[in-house]
Structures are given as structure tokens and as C-alpha cells.
Amino acid sequence: MNHVNTERLFHAFPALYRDRTAPITQSLMAFGFECGDGWVELLYNLSQALTEHSGKAGLDIVATQVKEKWGELVVYADGADDEAYRLIEDAREASATICEVCGAPGRLYTWGWRQTRCTEHAPDGPASSRHFH
Ligand SMILES: [Zn+2]
């Protein structure tokens, strides 16, 4: 994820992402968000939901790693409860319908490796060139 989007999330949710300055022996958040920029809105909404839930439930949720894994958004957190894990799981499921590159509607492609992409960013190239014969 690019610097601007990374800083936007870090600044909007300082408590959730406070481990961004922790040593990597303690948290992997120092690596930032290890996924494409297409998921920034999804991550923003998830971060907001987790922060609100954290406050209401009296929890102290801290993200320890955010990354793309097998084509989907995976978030690891400390201090989460069942509801928080449900929010994280919902975001993982939603990520499989959003292009990781640009945020357009997409689907999970599973040949060779798993990536969620729109037709434009599909592993075999834009749909237009696919049909050019
Ligand atoms: Zn795309």
C-alpha cells in the first residue's frame, strides 16, 4: 500500500495501529499494510468498525499484522473478541470481491496463485485484449 494511504489509516486510527512503531520482534505492523491500494476503503471501514466496537465493548484492540494472503485481506489483532473477529472475517470475505489493485468490483482468481482482481487487472490481462483474436 502506498505511503499516502498508509499514513491516512495510521492517522485516522492511532490506537488500533499504535504498534506501527513497535520493533518487528513484537509486531509486524512496522511493515505497514502488506496489500494493494484497492483495499484502502475496505480497510478504512474495518478499522472504523473495530475502533467503535473496541470503545463500546471496553476492549483494547491492536492490529499486529495486515496483509494479503491467498488473495484475501487478513488482519491479525490482539485484544479482539468474537465480534471483532466477525468484523475481520466479514472484511476478508468482502476483499474477495474487490480488486486489490484499484478497488473496482472483482473476483478471486485461483490459477497458479490466488489474487482478487477486476477484469482490467486480471492475471491474464484486460478483458479487451483477451478477446482480441
Ligand atoms: Zn482493478
Tell me what you see in this structure.
The protein is of the alpha+beta class and 133 residues long. The protein has one domain (3-98). The chain has 4 helices and 5 strands. The protein has helices at residues 3-12, 40-56, 82-95, 127-130, and strands at 33-34, 62-69, 72-78, 107-109, 115-117. The strands form 2 sheets. Strands 1-2-3 form a 3-stranded mixed beta sheet. Strand 1 (33-34), helix 2 (40-56) and strand 2 form a beta-alpha-beta unit. Helix 1 (3-12) runs parallel beside helix 2 and helix 2 (40-56) packs antiparallel against helix 3. The longest helix is centred in the middle third of the chain and has 17 residues, at 40-56. The chain is globular, with a radius of gyration of 16 Å. The structure holds zinc ion. Zinc ion is lined by residues 99, 101-102, 104, 117-118, 120-121. Zinc ion (ZN) binds next to loops.
Short recap of the structure:
With 133 residues, the chain is an alpha+beta fold. The protein contains 4 helices and 5 strands. The chain has one domain.
